[in-house]
Structure prediction request, 685 residues.
Amino acid sequence: MSSKETAPSVSVTYAQNGNSTKSNELGMRPMQERAYEKRGEQYLLIKSPPASGKSRALMFVALDKLHNQGLRKAIITVPEKSIGSSFADEPLSKFGFWADWHVEPKWNLCNAPGSDGSKADSVGSFLKGEDQVLVCPHATFRNAVEKFGIEAFDDCLVAVDEFHHVSANPENKLGAQLGELIGRDKVHIVAMTGSYFRGDAEPVLMPDDEAKFREGTVTYTYYEQLNGYKYLKQLDIGYFFYSGAYADDIVKVLDPHEKTIIHIPSVNSRESTKDKHREVEHIIDELGDWQGTDPATGFQLVKTSDGRILRIADLVDDEAAKRDKVSAALKDPAQKNNRDHVDIIIALGMAKEGFDWVWCEHALTVGYRASLTEIVQIIGRATRDAPGKSRARFTNLIAEPDASEDAVTEAVNDTLKAIAASLLMEQVLAPRFNFTPKRPDSGPVEGFDYGEGGYKEGECNVGFNEESGQFQIEIKGLTEPKSEEAERICQEDLNEVIAAFVQDKPTVERGMFDEELVPEELTQVRMGKIIKDKYPELDDEDQEAVRQHAIAALNLTQKAKEAALKDDDGEDKANTALIDGVRKFAMDVRELDIDLIDRINPFSEAYAILAKTMSEESLKQVAAIISAKKVQLTPEEARDLAKRALKFKQERGRLPSITSPDAWEKRMAEGVAYLARMKSEAADG
Prediction:
């Protein structure tokens, strides 16, 4: 496959140390153990990747709350019925725990017939009855709360799976109900999610409600999860641009030897041909000769040119009976460990979050997905550990913008969103960054490896702890967070800050295509504004500390990626590409200081990759469309520049000069001049 066709914007290699799959004497894996340690908290938030065992972690916690903490009921609510099976009976005592997990079949409302409205009555019966555990869809839970009031749930545990479906937006009914439950303070809540940021950049909870979860937050990173696998060693994420109909180009990125989930585009999207059945037929046709349908499973049988028979599950079929048969065959517990049960799954709205097919090696998604959360969930389908599976990948197939189309602006937007998703995933997959200011008395931190020659006095050092997947990085001039909340954000929430930054359209457009850009306008002004809006309760100094930590995390990952891609000679550098990249950058600049980090455009490496992937003609077109939107300074940005100009004056004893050869100094001076102009115009008016 030529590099013109696909560009892995990130490829991460892991150590396969087996830690994340090992169990303790109670049968708990590391993430579950971490959650169980916090079982006494009333409000528990588990942030942990797909496949890390969140549903079982909940079983341990719920059993303790029911038997040892005096709660009368546990209600588990999931976004879609198919996920209900994750909470089926588990013989936990077989692995060392003191109780088994059991749900009476009639109380797993994900399997029950009827509408969510009628199922709400079942919740009412359950609350009055003897049994202790119920599983239901989010919609059923919402209806039940509406019907019986929040008081009916007093002394219950409410566990919300895929918690990112909740939002602080008043239109979000589940979010509003949770706010009321938290306000009444008579329930215990366990919230579980693989991605705590939402695709629409809305906050998940209001700050006061979120504060309740502070003590009970359990974070388990993608890096810890994947580094601790036994089999999976490498994860690639990339995008591929095509022109014409996607069904003609899909075979260029679809390898029939890999176990693949294909998500075809929504019928309303630009990529869709508006005939989803023809699209599925066309994909099947491209793969080989159709041999009929397997009567037992409903899978399509296709003979490839090399004589293999592919078993393809079509979840796009509108005929409910056919689709249900295929869906049931995919869930057959007897086939869970059978790698040859199915080869390719073609889906539209199904097989995303909570869908468990451990053998999946390739998640291939056609068309841009509006939500970053959805992309994280789709990638999660391929990141499960399984024997013989050493590599997994996610490919996003995107239509190349075409000037002759009316939809060219939409196409450009999709391209930028795909880049944003890629940048965020790089951040999510990277080890965790702990930044500290470089001081005369700085020294090595125990447990961190400082590379060849060890810790060097007087220099900015980069240490790495492989076990915990954490960097310890010294940066000169770094502002430290003062308040507990700012410290928590710097430790826990940098990915959420970066998610908001890379989803900010003007930021991405300028970062990619504005040739006159001064990077500090993004790293200081735009990032500064995002943090002000996101954390208004922090004072100026803490906002600046969060800004510096977030931009350092983003830019160091980008610089590490640049180094890794340059050095990519095809050799397998087990688990070291990103770590070596961070070290190499730190050594090349001799001294890591925050001003230097602020002078890096976070999008330059993404642009370099885009230039390799997209045809030159399309790239020029995209650049022209974006350049046509001339960016004007807003009063708010001018005020921010003037503030930074004052800081500059305190440090240098003079105001920035508008004729300075330094682009950032000149830009600050322009901000001051703009404000002065506004003042005099107001005075004249």
About this structure: Residues 182 and 658 are 53 Å apart (CA to CA). Residues 570-575 have pLDDT under 50 and may be disordered.
